[in-house]
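Cross-posted from the bioinformatics board.
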Amino acid sequence: MLDINLESTIPFFYILSTIFFILGIKFLGSPKTARKGNLYAATAMFIAVTATLTNNGILSYQLIISGILVGTVLGSILAKTVKMTAMPQLVAAFNGFGGGASSFIAISEYLRIENATSGNIPIEISASIMLSTFIGMITFSGSLIAFGKLQEIIPSRSLRLPLQNLITSLIMISILIISIYLTGFEQSPNLYLILIGISLLLGILLVTPIGGADMPVVISLLNSYSGLAAAAAGFVIGNTILIVAGALVGAAGIILTQIMTKAMHRNIFNVIFGTFGANQSTKSSLPGTDAEERTVNEGEVEDIAMMLAYAKSIIFIPGYGLAVAQAQHQIREIADLLEERGVEIKYAIHPVAGRMPGHMNVLLAEADIPYTKLYDLDDINDSFPTTDVAVVIGANDVTNPAARDEPSSPIYGMPILDVDKARNVIVIKRSLSPGFAGIDNDLFYASNTTMLFGDAKAAASEIVTAIQEI
Amino acid sequence: MESTALIYIYFFILAAFIGFELINKIPPTLHTPLMSGANAISGITLVGALLVLGQSNSQLGQYLGLAAVILATINVVGGFMVTDRMLQMFKDRKQDRN
């Protein structure tokens, strides 16, 4: 039969798919080849899925085809209509879907094998089922909470129960104990149901205490989990392409999480258990509470427009506030007007600017700002002393000189942009409130700093008008 | 059976190390597209969902399988498309500049 021949070719197609996945991720690493990389990865997926469909064990294609159709329609609508600023929550939602799918696979297999073996599930299968169930469920509920926070359906600030850390730890221990019991001792569908329930609860409890500014770390971690959940599902059904691709993504998420936590001078443990800065949130801090008696130079829009128009070189430092206010188009308008006047414009991008690592680059690209004008921290820091004006828009902690100069500061050692070394500094910000690190920023009180208080988008539009009138 | 499980663990470990090495070298500009692309790849769980749905012999198993196929397909199709949308913007900007 032709069918048998087809099925026996599946492993070879999986090998081909693996090669394409690896090349895809490799090509995604360089701006020139990134698009090709994404195409390779999509090709890898297509090969893996098509080859799998030749499996002789598949009894009915009706449901499969309808499922794929529904998913394709929904997925492409989401991908086409999402705004670039909403990317983080879309990735969070997709993460959740992937994690949910992996745990559904595990649950379905549990039911089938439990039935077929009357409760004597082989130990390695049972262990993989438990792993992929709880990792998948934590990813699912955690991602949905992250989505809700980023979409602002749920308050984005840190929500913490009394004794939260204790409760979370107890749940984690229970998950481990139940998983070990179900794997090594006795099968019990009821206990398995409890495992599912508390895993969902753990996902919720892990993400609710995390404030808006720390969300990138969480998304990145969840990204890693969704890969691990897929790999665990691969162990359950004995499928190599799931194991390999899942492991690749799991590793990707871990590396990205490390890069981000390092740049934010946080560690993942602190983010989750909130030992530092947990009660601070970017939005709830009141202006002026930490400002003491120090004086600030508050500028008028007209003066600032003048300063910009007659500068030779300007560096923009976009931050989280710009992303929230969606002011990237207004910033580009300012830049265009100034470039017409012969001003040299650069953009300094801190590794964690925006809501995800690299998110700022995407937002600026969307506003037609060439990526060749975007400079990473290491490439731009030497330029600040020779720059006329540094314009900080909605960024805070990443410009705080205390991270460089004051060993006693909680953020000491975090890499910052040396904005304070520019000849003049303009800071556009809602208020003097501290950033998520909850500490004051000396930059705002420096003699060469001019503050412009207000929403980044509104302030930038006013500056555009003012420059046009010069 | 045990040796099969061990071979799977080898696969997992080797793939994880390849992942670490590949991703170490990615510039910050591409972190968001990479995250989104990696996320689409994690939709590989679709393969598992197809097998489970195709082979399931109970009503509940079919519901779970169908839900898994739909969710995983959204992850795969949406993920690759949105990654391409982002990367397209980078490409266009570069052409403008040169």
